[in-house]
Amino acid sequence: MEKHELKPARVVILISGGGTNLQTIIDQQEAGKLPITICAVISNRDDVQGIQRAQKHNIPVIVLEHNQFPSRESFDGRLQDIIDSQNPDIVVLAGFMRILTPDFTRHYEGKMINIHPSLLPHYQGLHTHRRVLEAGDLKHGATVHFVTAQLDGGPAIIQSSIEVEKSDSEESLKEKVLRQEHKIFPLAIRWLAEKRVVMREEKAFLDGEELAVGGVQFDKNEI
């Protein structure tokens, strides 16, 4: 019997900045490592490098500036309309610096993922590198997780850890964590596109197995 191949997943990517994770996703898609089609890149700022990265690869870009809307709800409502017009299978937050409303996150529950620069559930929110240094932690890292109404609180899919050295600064930690982000973000997107990872009842499952609180540990598994 002939094996039926999955159609490439339709992906919309949201950004607010330089777009290094966006670039990694584009590169892996163009190299045939990700079974996806990037339908659109949406930015809430018109002056960021991520826009140029998308345009260089002929990916449609939509700029929706949040400061042009009277409320968070009105911005999210318009953003939702734009995303839905692309009929995406997956919505990727790649450095999208907005707190999203509960109605918006519920609308995309199970198909929207984010990457966060900490070993969640530790250090939700901003300034994670500074907080790790202030706490004297020996480990730091990045987590890809499903997005829910709880800020950085959705179930984790995959994490990657780094050692924190005495010589580390916020900037050096940022660079080291970003390198890990570039490894695990495309992998999580591939799992989602291949329907290997799903979210059910506020929990993440990979190949039918419920994942632990931190998700798959990239630094402890051969993937």
* C-alpha Rg (nearest Å): 17 Å
Order of helices and strands: EHEHEHEHEHEEHEEEE
In the CATH scheme, the class would be Alpha Beta
Number of domains: 1
Helix content: 25-40%
The name of the CATH architecture is 3-Layer(aba) Sandwich
Q: Could you say which overall geometry the principal axes of the C-alpha atoms support?
A: globular
CATH H-level homologous superfamily name = Formyl transferase, N-terminal domain
Distance between the termini: 28 Å
Strand arrangement across the biggest beta sheet: 3-2-1-4-5-6-7-11
The major beta sheet can be summarized as:
8 strands, mixed
Number of helices: 6
Class by alpha and beta content: alpha/beta
Strand content: 15-25%
Describe the structure.
By secondary structure, the chain is α/β, with parallel strands linked by helices. The protein has one domain: Formyl transferase, N-terminal domain (Rossmann fold, 3-Layer(aba) Sandwich), CATH 3.40.50. It has helices at residues 20-30, 49-56, 72-85, 102-107, 128-135, 170-193; strands at 9-15, 36-43, 61-63, 90-93, 112-116, 139-146, 156-163, 197-200, 203-206, 209-210, 216-217. The strands form 2 sheets. The chain has an 8-stranded mixed beta sheet with strand order 3-2-1-4-5-6-7-11, covered by helices on one side. Strands 8-9-10 form a 3-stranded antiparallel beta sheet. α1 (20-30) runs parallel beside α6 (170-193). The protein starts with 8 loop residues before the first strand and ends in a 6-residue tail after the last strand. The mean pLDDT is 95.
